[in-house]
What does this fold into?
Amino acid sequence: MCLPVSFPRLPGLRPLLAASLTLLASGGLFAQSADQNSGQNQNDVSALKTQMQKMQKEYEDRISAMEAEMKSLESKADTGSILNTRVLTDADGKEVTAAPTLDESFLKSLTRNFTFSAYVRAGFQFNGNGGGGNFSFDSPQAPGGRERLGNENDTYFELTWMQAHMLGDSPDVMDVSMTFTPAIRYVQQRTTFDGNILGSNINRSGNNFDFVMRQAFLSVSNVFKTAPEVTFWGGQRFYDRFNTDPDDYFWLDTSGYGVGVQNVNVGIGQLEIAWIGGLDASNISPGIGSYFKHTFDVRLEKINVGVGTLALVLIGNVEKGGTFNQTYNNNGNIVDLTNPVHTNTAWGIGGGAIYNVQFGPGGGNNSFTAYALFGRGVTNFGSGTDFGGVSAAESLFLHYHPATPAGQQINIGDALDHGFTYRAGFQFYLAGPWYHSEPAPAAGMSKDGKAVAPVAPAPAPPQPWFSVGLWANWNDSYNGSAVGGFTGPGVGIGGNVANPNEPISSKVASGHAHWVDFGTRPAIWLADNIAIQGQFAGIYESNTTNGASGFPGFGHSGWMGIFDVGPVIKPKGGYYTKPEIRFFATYAIWSDHLKGLTTPIQENGGGDYAPPYNGNTNHGWLFGTQVEWFF
It folds into this structure.
C-alpha cells in the first residue's frame, strides 16, 4: 500500500544549476590561464568548457524528466484514484484532505477494511480403563456429526481472513470483498505429537493430520447502481448452511465450489441462487473422467410471517452417468477395478422450509428454529457426490451374487434415482431468567396533560444464570441399491457369465435407514464465570450398517445414550457464550446390536474403531479437558 507523497516544485533549480556550472567553468578557465599561457593549454580549456556544457545539458534534461514525473503523480492524486481514496480516509472511512500523520487514527484507517475471526477447540481425553481417548462415542450411521460436549477427540481450528472494499470505498466502483479460511485438523490417533514429519510410519499412517481449505471466495456488490445490495459471489465457501450445534449435525449444507447471487429483493423476501459443483476423483471413467455432481440451489429467505421469519428452499441435482473401470491404490497409483461398474445419469429434486424466531437479548442464545426437508434421488441436501451409493449398490449386488467373475461389468442402472431423504427437526435455546424491563418515561406531558418528570434509566437487568438447549432431529433415507438381477437372456441370476464384457443388470430395492436423535444441554452458573454444564443425548437407528454386511439399510437396529457433566469456566449469557475451559466426564451406553460399532477414531462414524470398547462391550467412559472459543 502506497501513501500519497507531495513533492515541492523546483522553479529556481534550473537557472541556479546553470549559474553554478558556468561559475565552475569560468573558475577553471581563470585558473588554467593564470598558470599556463601555451596554445596547448588553451585547447585543454576549450575541451573542458565543452564537457561542462554537456554536463549542464544532461542535468537540465534530468530535471525536466523529474518535473514531468511529479506533474504526473500530482495529476493522479487529483483524480482521486482508487488507492488514494482508500488511504486518505480516517478510521471511520471519511475522506480527509490533510496529509496523514502516523497516529492511532491513521493506523486504524489502514486496517478498518480487514477483519479476522477464528474457531478453535483443543484438549485431551482418556478412557475409563486408563488408556488414551483417541476416539469418540458415535452411532455408526449418523447422517451428521457426533454429540459434541466431552466427546471430540480432535484438535481443530479455522482461521478466517476477510478484506472488504478491495477496490475502494467510492460509490462509483464495484464493492469487492475477499474471504479466505484455511483449517487444520489433528486427530489424536496414535501419538499426541508426531515427531517424524517426513516419510511414512505407523504414527502417520492413520491420516491424523489434515490441512484443508474451507473458504476462498470473492463477493462483489454495487454492480447495479440502482440495486447496490445485490451481491455476486464465486469460489469456495460455506453456503448458507444450517446445523444443530450440540451434535454437530448440518442438516442443510450445500457448501462447496460455485457461483451465485444473493440479496435480490423480490418484495416478500430476498432471493438467493447458487450453482455448486462437487467432484469425486477416486474413480476413473474412460468416457467422462471423474464423477461430478451439479447442485442448483434456489432460496427465498427473510419472509416475514409476523413472529419470526420463513425461508423456502428448492434444490435440484444431476450426476452424469458412465462406466468406471479404474481407481487408485494406497500409493496413489492407478489400478483396474476388479469389477467395472456402470451407472446411469442420476437426478434429484427436493426442498423444504425453515422457520426461525429470536426473542429477548443474546441473539442465538434466545432462539427457536424448526425445519422440514424432502429430497428425491441424489438430492440429499449436500453438494458432495453420491459415488458412495454407486459402490454400495455394486457391492450389495456382488454380495448376493458371489459367483460373478472378476472383470465382469456390473450395471446398477438407475438405482440412485430411487433414493429418498426425509428430514425434520427443531432446536431451542433459552438463557434465563429472561428479564424484560419497560423503558423509562421521557420528560414531557402524559396523556392526561400532567407534567412528567424525567426518570433515571433503570439499571441493566442481571445476566442470566441459567441456560438450556433442547433439540431433536429425524432422518429417514431410502438408499436405492442393486440387490438382485439377471445376466441376460437364458442366464440365471448370479450365474457365471461366459462373456465378461456383457453387463449384468440389476433390479433396485431401496434399503430403509431410520435415524432419530434428541437431547438437552443445561448450564447453571455458580459465579459470574464458573458454571456446571452437562449434556444428554439419545439416538436410535434402524437398519444400520452392521459389521457383517456393511450395507446401509440392510443391517440391524439399535440405540445409544451419551451423558456428560463437568465444571466449565465461561462468561454468563447462554449456550453460545465463549470461550470455555471444560472439565468433563462422559458416559455412553448402547444396545447389543451396536457392539463394536460405537467408538470410531474418525468423525461421522464408520470403520477404524478403537479399543477398549470396540469388542464385546456396550458401555464406556471418557474423561478429559477441552478449550473452545471463537471470535
In short: The chain has a mean pLDDT of 79. The chain has one domain: 113-193+202-434+460-630. DSSP finds five helices and 25 strands in the chain.
